[in-house]
Structures are given as structure tokens and as C-alpha cells.
């Protein structure tokens, strides 16, 4: 693979509201295996941020350790990135978010990084409803250490070497729902049509937004018998419906049949438009989402799309009543009480 | 000649934990402090909430010695569980004050100790009806009795109660009633005051009585910390509680009522330090506080912060390890763990406060140091300093002092820069320029990672680039030597072949031991360490003495190891004085240990 990315871009590349093309949202050339699902997710993140016209430098991208956690190098080159330690991206994201509530935080993790060593931090960042997007690139295996089963590998899934996983999988989307996540979606790296709007909606959501993306590992877990292979996922995918994010200024045109769609207004004035919802699916019904997910699993299907969203949600800054201004912009005059206050404190201690 | 029994004794209270004794005992200590007499209270408590023995030692010292002293002159024992041991620990000629509601077992009678029995339980049952009051006021009654026995000014006690229960007149009245019951009982039954007693002095000056953890919390408010992440662990918990208490008073936005700070109680220490690193990376001053087991858990992240060069402030309130050890007892035993925290080649900056005043100013200063050096700063305090009240110089703040945020490029500077190199040593001091996320649309972004990278933060596995970066980190370490707090020398020029080195809470007792030994004809030079890395003064001090005693509170002579490892010094002349039983070190212990080495030579 070449490491030289051509600088040339088509002169007529479409521009967003900031006048940027997707070039301003790209990162370095990926060093992942050709065909890796993760690269498609990176491309979807680039497209989603471009379409939302977010200034790249106002995004912070964070990750843990593993193949998936390498991807922030490959998207949003003009954003600050932080490749932290294994399974601990949520804590770094929490601290960063506390320091500056105005940036957009995109956390990227894998099934090894999240469902094993990072499980504690994953569940607690959900509990706190931190305003961030948390994407798991879920391939059911440890790619960077050459293909060991991960905790999301399905029971009975066969590895490339032929061994069958005897353990129950951890269902991250189901867990997120159970824990009270305020936005839960599931998707497939091979379905950008679905994934891009989901990422856009997740960014617009002003609380914790979780997207579990099945992202096949072409090198170690794309074999027959694997339940995380491209072929298997394509055959077993089931969508909750079509999702789109409509910008604030766009007039909402009902392009779907009456009774089959829902518009979800987000805090920033945008709408998530859900079309062709499966019958008796309500995106505001947590219990319903949990049931639907479990039922799909019982049928060996993978339910994708927006599973649940909480319209009115209180994120961590709101919960702890911290300043509306980013804490990292407060100056010494506002932070340091000075010597006269200290004299009073000394007096109280005498 | 002054009476050696006036303003010069140790009193120990033996209580059951969870009975409200700590506040009564504090009232006693504070009253002595208010009488202008130097006082050192120490709470010796179990890792338990209710029902186990707990002790509270108060040393009163006319000479102003603030270290712990062995030997109990007066024992106030209201805990039958510990009574046999408590009787044994009284010095010959001392006093044993006890609850005589139940008669003492004859085996507990010593003929070299004076017994003062008071039917505390009986008095409480008679005078109070509420069960909780019956328990609480038992403690206040003995404080009243002590006021009579030791000549504590009653008005001082009244004043302290009035301050403590301001606005709760009924409580003040009840407490004063209990105090008077104690006074009355002594009046009616004993001759007083005792030979051991108090006299008002003017030896306290403008000093304050405060614990080190509150001082650290306040220091963090003054140092500009805005993001605090933590996980509860004794004995560090009250650092963050202290921060919160002061921040709630001093850091509320007057217009919105919102907090100009964020405190997150993390799920564990791993997350706490991760949050601190994330916040500092994003330009907020942020810290956490923990103790040994937490420091162990934080090791991986401390390596990341060292290598990725992220300012981080960590307060380690050391306790007795290893593992859970004795979690409510003191030690200085995390030194090596902290100094080389993490895998790979790491060295961490350590700061050693020894008084609450230093806890305050060194915590505040740690934020400057962390941002100047772009590395973790670990403040090494301990349970004794953190959780006990100490008589300390008052806190001082210079309003002209501006926070030093270190080398941070703003949008304008980035605009003017041809190319930003996050790890490019522009100034030759090993400290590079950083940017805060969100600063400039196209310049200044970089990827922070624990993997090796070049001067422009690009990922690389090129060994020579890696080595170059590691060498630069060492250069930064050399720069740090002249930035971190310098050691304190006790003499302008050497006057002895013997040197003492100590730090942190060993200081009080080391100073007292020096006085004691000087009185017996042995003079020492002394140096108090305030930080790691060690500068040249430290090396020179060791070189210029034939024998150097290193006083520390751990088994393995960790500071000695660090000195030997980091400096070109002869280990054979480095003699350890090691106290590690979980109790604060005493002057007597230091003197006896040093005498063991020196006596043959002197003889």
C-alpha cells in the first residue's frame, strides 16, 4: 500500500456552508487492511461532519487502543485527536468535555476496547449522559493482535482458524439501552446510506449518543461460519426504517406515507426524520427497542437503524450545573479568590 | 526555672469510634490553641465507622514542637475495650481518667498512676433523656472536667461552642451544661488543678490550625483548578471535599448561579486520572487526589501523560501499604512508585509539602509546574499531614502573581508560525509548544498519542526518532531541576561531618531531634527535600558530609534508594532512619536510631 495520498481533488467538489469540501475533513491515509469495515465508518464520519458543516477544529476525536482506535488518524485531520490507553477513552472524553462543553466530541472504540477492558468506563459514561458520540466499530475479534475472539463474538461463531466461540456475546446496543443511554443506534459499515444520517443525528443529540456499527474484519473474521462477516451481516440485517437528519432551515416535506414516519426535533433545531418505520416501532420507547433488539437476535437477525432517542435529555454539564461558558476559558480573575478572601479564611482557622 | 509540667504533656483520649468523640476532642485541642499554647492533635482511628477503638492524642509543647511524642501523661479512657492497653500506656507518674460508672477491675490498678474516676455514663443518664445526647455529652463532660483539672479557661470553651453552633442556641446551652457538669464534678470530688496543666501564653501568633487536605483543596481553588475527578479513598477523600466546600463558596458565577468548576466522582481511579488528563489536554486546570492503591491503578495513565506530555496534577495522600495495608495509618511509602510511575522509561516530578501552608501553596504551584513542564506533578503528602490538624503558618497569596500557563500557542501565534511542531524543541530546554483543541481552524491541530511520533506529532516507529524524543524528555527533566521547589538548607555553611535529610511530615520530629541531640553535644547539618528531581544542592550536601542520615517513614528506605539511583553518591555513607509502624515518626525514635550508629564512633 502506498503512503502517498494524491493532493489533487476534483475542482468541482461540493462545498458545505463553511465553504469547505470533504478534503478539509479527511485525515491521513489509512493503514488498515484493504476492505476493512472501519475505513467505511471513517468515511461516513467525514461525510457526516462535512454535511453538518462543523468546523473541523471544533471537533475533538478520541479513541482507546486497537484497530478501531487507530482510525481517528484517518479522518478529520484538522481536528485535535487523542489516542489514549486501552478501554479508557470515555474518561479522557469526560475530562475533555468538562473542560470545554462547546466542542463536538467523537469517541471511537472497538469491541475489544469497549466490551472488555473498557466496559466499566463505557457503562459509566452512559450513566452520566456525557454529551458525545460513541461509535463502536464492532468486528467480534481482536484484529491488532491477530484475530482472537472478543466479548461481542456470537456464541457459535467460527473463527478463521476454525474454533467455535463457546461464550455468550455482550450486546452493546442492548446494554446501552438497559443503562439508560439517551440515543442508541446500530448500523453496518457496509451501509453508508444508513450510517451517515445516524452519525449526523448522533452529533446533533445533546447527550450520550451510542452507535454500534458492525464492521467486519476482512483479515481475521470474514470467513464462513463467522457471524460478523460481510456475507453473514448482509444476509441477516434488518432495518428499523430509514433515518435522515434534516437541517433546521430545511422545510420539512412529508415524503413518506402518512402514519409511517416521525420527525424528532433535536436541541439544535434540526430534525431526525424517521421514515418507513417498521410497524409498532416507536423511537421514543426504550422498552420497545429492547424487545425489538432481543427479538431480532432470537431470529439471528441484526436490527439496525435508530433504536431509541430521548427527546428531552439532561447531559452531565446540566446535571452538575456547571458554567455555560467553557471552563477552559475562565481567567484567573474568575478563578482565584485573592488575598483578602484568604485573610478571612485564615481568621476562620484561628 | 519554668515548671516542665506546665504546657508540656501528652494527653490521649481513648474512645469508641462513631460516638462523636472527635469533635469534643477537637474542642479540647482548639481551646489550648486559643490559649496561645502550641498544640498538636493526632487522630488515631480504625478503618471502621462505628464500634472500634479510636484514640486522639494531643501534644502540648511550650517549645513549639509539633511532632508526635511517645508516652502518655494523661489518659482519658472512655472505652472499656481498650482499657487494659490504655492503662499500660500511661507514663509513670501520669493520670488515668476514666468512666467510673462501672468499677475498675483490680488488675487495672497501677500504683504509679493517679486515677480520676467520673461516673460519665451515670451522669449522662441522669441529666439527658435523648439517647444520642447521652452518648455525645459524655464526651463534653470530660472536656469540662479537663478544663478544671488542667486550668483551661472556661470562657475560651464557651466561645468555641458559640462559634461552632452559631444560630443554634439550644445546642450551645446543652453543651455548656455538659461542660459545667464536668467542672462541677471535679470541684466536688478532686483537688485541682493537676501538676500537669496549662497556662496562657502568646506562642501561637498568627498561626492557623488546619488539616493538610483542606489546605490542598483550597490551594487547588487558588491555583485555578476547574475540573476535578476523583474516586473516594482514605486518606485522600477530604482533599476533594475541601475543594468542593471552598469552591461552592468562592466559585459560583454571580450572575447565573452556575458553578465555575466541575467535579466528577469517577467509577475508579483509572477513570479519575483519565478525566484529569482529558481536561488538562483540553486546556483546563484539573487534578485528582488519591492514595497508594489508587496511585498503582493510575500508573498506566501516568506513563501516557509523561510520554504525551500532558499537564496533570495528582495529590497522593500516602497511607500504610502495601495493598490495603493499614488504610488509616500514615507512611511515606509511595515514593518509588510515584517517582518512576509507569512502564517504560518514566520519571515523574514529585513535590513534598510538610505543613498545611505548604499543602496550600504547593498545590497551587503544582498547576503552574504541570503546565510549565507539561508533565504530571505528584504532590506527595500523607495521612498524618492530610487528615490531622496542624498548627501552621497562615496561608499566603500574592495578588500580583499571575498563573503561568506555560508554552501554549494562541490563534494569532499559530497564524504567524510557518509550521507548528508539537514536539519540536524550539527553545532548547526540552519543553515544546502545545495548542489547546479548537484554537485555530487549520493550524495547531495534532494527534496526541502514547505511541512514538516525530517532532510534528506524526506517528513513527523509527527508532532514531523515538530515541531523540526520549533524549529530549531527559533534557526537559534537567530543566525541571531548576524549576521545582529547591531544598531547604538549615545552615548557611556546614558545621558538622553529619548531615540529616528529611522531608514531609518527618520534618517536625527531625527538627526536634536535632535540638535534642545538640543539647547532648552532637551537632548536625540538615536539609529538607521539597521535590524530585533533585538539584545540585542535594548532591553537594551529600558530598560535603561524611555521613548522611536519611529519615523517612517506610521500610525500604525509598528516598535513600532514589537519591542513590539519581545522584552520583556513595551509598555506604547514606544511613537510614526508618519508621514504618503506621504512627507518625517521633524525635525520640530518630535520636535513638542515630545514636545506634554514632555511639560506637563517639565512644
Note down, in words, how this protein is organized.
The complex is a heterodimer of chains A (350) and B (603). Chain A is an alpha/beta fold and 350 residues long. In chain A, a hairpin with a 5-residue loop joins strand 5 (141-142) and strand 6. Chain A has helices at residues 37-52, 67-70, 89-99, 111-117, 119-127, 172-178, 192-204, 230-236, 286-298, 316-320, 332-335, 338-348; strands spanning 59-63, 80-83, 104-110, 132-138, 141-142, 148-149, 183-188, 208-214, 237-239, 242-246, 262-265, 271-275, 302-309. Chain B folds into 4 domains: 8-189, 3-Layer(aba) Sandwich (Pyruvate-ferredoxin Oxidoreductase, domain 3), CATH 3.40.920; 212-392, Thiamin diphosphate (ThDP)-binding fold, Pyr/PP domains (Rossmann fold, 3-Layer(aba) Sandwich), CATH 3.40.50.970; 411-481, no CATH class; 488-602, 3-Layer(aba) Sandwich (Rossmann fold), CATH 3.40.50. Chain B has 20 helices and 21 strands. In chain B, the strands form 4 sheets. A 7-stranded mixed beta sheet of chain B has the order 9-8-10-11-13-12-19, with helices on both faces. Chain B has a 6-stranded mixed beta sheet with strand order 2-3-1-4-5-6. In chain B, strand 8 (227-230), helix 8 and strand 9 (262-265) form a beta-alpha-beta unit. In chain B, helix 1 (21-34) packs parallel to helix 4 (131-150), helix 7 crosses helix 13 and helix 9 packs parallel to helix 11. The mean pLDDT of chain B is 96. The interface between A and B is large, with 58 and 74 residues. Strand 2 (80-83) of chain A pairs parallel with strand 15 (447-449) of chain B. Chain B: Residues 219-384 form the Pyruvate flavodoxin/ferredoxin oxidoreductase pyrimidine binding domain. Chain B: Keywords: Oxidoreductase. Chain B: This is 2-oxoglutarate ferredoxin oxidoreductase subunit alpha. Chain B: Residues 18-184 form the Pyruvate/ketoisovalerate oxidoreductase catalytic domain.
Amino acid at each position: 500500500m502506498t503512503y502517498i495520498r494524491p493532493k489533487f481533488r476534483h475542482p468541482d467538489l461540493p462545498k458545505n456552508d463553511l465553504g469547505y469540501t470533504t478534503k478539509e475533513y479527511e485525515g491521513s491515509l489509512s493503514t488498515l487492511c484493504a476492505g476493512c469495515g472501519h475505513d467505511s465508518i471513517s468515511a461516513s464520519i467525514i461525510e457526516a461532519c462535512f454535511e453538518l458543516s462543523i468546523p473541523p477544529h471544533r471537533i475533538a476525536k478520541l479513541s482507546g487502543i486497537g484497530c478501531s482506535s487507530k482510525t481517528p488518524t484517518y479522518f478529520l485531520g484538522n481536528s485535535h485527536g487523542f489516542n489514549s490507553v486501552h478501554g479508557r477513552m470515555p474518561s479522557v472524553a469526560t475530562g475533555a468535555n468538562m473542560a470545554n462543553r462547546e466542542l463536538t466530541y467523537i469517541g471511537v472504540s472497538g469491541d475489544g476496547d469497549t466490551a472488555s477492558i473498557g466496559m466499566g468506563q463505557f457503562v459509566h459514561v452512559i450513566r452520566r449522559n456525557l454529551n458525545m458520540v460513541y461509535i463502536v466499530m464492532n468486528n467480534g475479534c481482536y484484529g491488532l493482535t491477530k484475530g482472537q475472539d472478543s466479548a461481542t463474538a456470537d456464541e457459535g461463531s467460527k473463527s478463521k482458524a476454525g474454533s467455535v466461540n463457546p461464550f455468550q456475546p455482550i450486546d452493546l446496543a442492548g446494554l446501552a439501552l438497559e443503562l439508560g443511554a439517551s440515543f442508541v443506534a446500530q448500523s453496518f459499515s457496509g451501509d453508508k446510506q444508513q450510517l451517515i444520517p445516524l452519525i449526523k443525528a448522533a452529533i446533533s443529540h445533546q447527550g450520550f449518543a451510542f452507535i454500534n456499527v458492525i464492521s467486519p474484519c476482512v483479515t481475521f473474521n470474514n470467513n464462513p461460519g463467522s457471524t460478523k462477516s460481510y456475507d453473514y451481516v448482509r444476509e441477516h440485517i434488518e432495518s428499523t426504517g430509514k433515518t435522515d437528519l434534516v437541517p433546521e432551515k430545511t422545510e420539512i416535506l412529508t415524503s413518506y406515507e402518512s402514519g409511517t414516519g416521525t420527525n424528532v426535533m433535536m436541541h439544535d433545531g434540526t430534525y431526525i426524520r424517521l421514515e418507513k418505520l417498521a410497524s409498532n416501532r416507536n423511537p421514543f420507547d426504550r422498552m420497545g427497542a429492547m424487545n425489538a433488539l432481543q427479538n431480532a437476535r432470537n431470529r439471528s437477525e441484526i436490527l439496525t437503524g435508530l433504536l431509541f432517542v430521548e427527546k428531552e435529555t439532561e447531559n452531565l454539564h446540566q446535571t452538575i450545573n456547571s458554567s455555560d461558558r467553557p471552563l477552559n476559558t475562565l481567567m484567573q480573575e474568575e478563578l482565584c479568590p485573592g488575598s483578602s478572601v484568604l485573610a478571612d479564611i485564615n481568621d476562620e482557622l484561628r | 526555672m519554668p515548671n516542665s509540667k506546665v504546657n508540656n504533656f501528652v494527653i490521649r483520649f481513648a474512645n469508641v469510634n462513631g460516638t462523636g468523640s472527635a469533635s469534643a476532642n477537637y474542642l479540647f485541642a482548639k481551646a489550648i490553641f486559643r490559649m496561645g499554647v502550641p498544640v498538636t492533635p493526632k487522630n488515631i482511628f480504625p478503618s471502621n465507622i462505628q464500634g472500634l477503638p479510636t484514640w486522639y492524642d494531643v501534644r502540648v509543647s511550650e517549645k513549639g514542637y509539633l511532632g508526635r511524642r511517645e508516652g502518655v501523661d494523661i489518659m482519658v479512657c472512655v472505652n472499656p475495650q481498650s482499657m487494659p492497653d490504655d492503662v499500660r500506656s500511661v507514663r509513670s507518674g501520669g493520670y488515668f481518667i476514666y468512666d467510673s460508672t462501672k468499677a475498675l477491675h483490680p488488675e487495672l490498678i497501677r500504683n504509679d498512676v493517679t486515677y480520676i474516676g467520673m461516673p460519665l455514663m451515670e451522669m449522662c443518664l441522669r441529666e439527658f433523656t435523648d439517647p444520642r445526647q447521652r452518648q455525645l455529652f459524655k464526651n463534653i463532660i470530660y472536656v469540662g472536667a479537663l478544663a478544671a483539672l488542667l486550668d483551661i479557661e472556661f470562657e475560651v470553651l464557651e466561645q468555641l461552642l458559640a462559634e461552632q453552633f452559631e444560630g443554634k442556641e439550644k445546642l450551645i446551652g446543652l453543651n455548656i451544661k455538659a461542660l459545667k457538669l464536668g467542672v462541677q464534678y471535679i470541684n466536688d470530688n478532686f483537688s485541682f488543678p493537676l501538676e500537669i496543666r496549662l497556662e496562657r501564653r502568646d506562642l501561637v501568633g498568627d498561626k492557623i490550625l488546619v488539616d493538610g487536605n483542606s489546605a490542598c483543596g483550597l490551594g487547588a481553588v487558588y491555583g485555578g483548578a476547574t475540573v476535578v475527578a476523583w474516586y473516594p479513598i482514605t486518606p485522600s477523600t477530604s482533599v476533594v471535599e475541601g475543594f468542593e466546600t471552598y469552591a461552592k463558596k468562592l466559585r459560583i458565577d454571580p450572575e447565573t448561579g452556575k458553578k465555575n468548576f466541575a467535579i466528577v466522582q469517577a467509577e475508579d481511579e483509572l477513570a479519575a486520572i483519565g478525566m484529569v488528563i482529558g481536561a488538562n489536554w483540553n486546556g483546563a486546570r484539573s487534578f485528582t487526589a488519591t492514595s497508594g492503591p489508587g496511585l498503582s491503578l493510575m500508573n498506566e495513565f501516568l506513563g501516557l501523560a509523561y510520554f504525551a506530555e500532558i499537564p496533570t496534577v495528582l495529590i497522593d495522600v500516602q497511607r500504610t501499604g502495601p495493598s490495603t495495608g493499614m488504610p488509616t495509618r500514615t507512611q511515606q511509602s509511595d515514593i518509588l512508585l510515584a517517582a518512576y510511575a509507569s512502564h517504560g522509561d518514566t520519571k515523574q516530578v514529585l513535590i513534598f509539602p510538610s505543613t498545611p501552608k505548604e499543602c496550600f501553596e504547593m498545590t497551587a504551584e503544582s498547576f503552574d509546574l504541570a503546565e510549565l513542564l507539561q508533565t504530571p506533578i505528584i504532590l506527595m503528602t500523607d495521612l498524618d499531614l492530610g487528615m490531622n490538624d496542624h498548627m501552621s503558618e497562615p496561608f499566603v497569596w500574592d495578588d500580583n502573581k499571575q498563573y503561568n500557563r506555560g508554552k501554549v500557542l494562541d490563534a494569532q501565534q499559530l497564524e504567524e508560525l510557518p509550521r507548528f511542531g508539537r514536539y519540536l524543541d524550539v527553545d532548547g530546554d526540552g519543553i515544546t509548544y502545545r495548542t489547546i483543541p479548537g484554537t485555530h481552524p487549520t493550524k495547531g491541530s495534532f494527534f496526541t498519542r502514547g505511541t512514538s511520533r516525530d517532532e510534528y506529532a506524526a506517528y513513527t516507529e523509527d527508532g532514531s526518532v523515538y530515541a531523540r524524543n526520549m533524549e529530549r524528555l531527559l533534557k526537559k527533566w534537567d530543566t525541571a531541576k531548576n524549576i521545582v521547589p529547591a531544598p531547604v538548607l538549615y545552615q548557611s555553611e556546614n558545621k558538622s561531618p553529619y548531615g540529616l535529610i528529611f522531608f514531609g511530615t518527618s520534618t517536625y520530629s527531625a527538627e526536634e531531634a536535632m535540638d535534642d541531640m545538640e543539647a547532648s553535644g552532637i551537632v548536625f547539618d540538615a536539609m529538607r527535600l521539597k521535590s524530585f528531581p533533585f538539584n545540585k544542592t542535594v548532591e553537594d550536601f551529600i558530598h560535603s558530609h561524611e555521613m548522611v542520615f536519611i529519615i523517612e517513614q517506610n521500610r525500604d528506605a525509598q528516598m535513600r534508594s532514589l537519591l542513590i539511583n539519581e545522584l552520583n553518591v556513595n551509598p555506604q555513607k547514606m544511613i537510614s532512619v526508618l519508621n514504618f509502624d503506621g504512627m507518625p515518626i517521633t524525635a525520640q525514635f530518630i535520636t535513638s536510631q542515630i545514636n545506634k550508629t554514632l555511639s560506637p564512633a563517639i565512644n
